[in-house]
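Researcher: Here's the sequence for the chain we discussed earlier.
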Amino acid sequence: MTPPVVHSLREQIREHIVDGIVSGRWKPGERIVERRIATELEVSQTPVREALRELETLRLIESAPNKGVRVRNLTAADLEESYPVRAGLEQIAAELAAPTLGEDCSRLSPHVAALYEADRLADGEAQVRHTVAFHREMVRAAGNAVLLHTWEGLGIEVFTALSIRWLGTVQKSYAEEHEALIDAFLRKDPDIGVLVKAHVLGCAPRA
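Model: Thanks. This is the structure I predict for it:
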């Protein structure tokens, strides 16, 4: 049985802020007040400051002297620039994960089934969630903590959700392609890394 994931206070605060940005509570260019969040969540300002620092690293927010912290104006270039990096990381991940996933893809399969269902219901939120979850499980299967940390640092799920909300990009689940990747892993395709890289580049959201 998989133990429950316990999030640190900083991570919980970060998720709270991210949810606020994605939901539209804080819009592009709008200021995020550290003290107000601390009061709202009944915590000290230190973990709030740490969470904001992480989000600045993800390029979701920006700070300036005497201006405080504001939500960044996301551009199409922000999203486009992340995909070649993501594709390279996932190529490495696929090659490292190949021995494991060549024997068992049970952590990937449920997300493919969920993607087909999301397509049927035209549920864009579920498409984003399960697409990212599929790729996260693949990267996790590589068994390389540095690789996983770097991949998660790209903020893929948040950026994709924001691109749909702010830029009007069209999200597709590419369920068939994800299913084909599972087949490639199970048949131990020697070109699996190249296949994954091409898939990621081909799935980049487009306006």
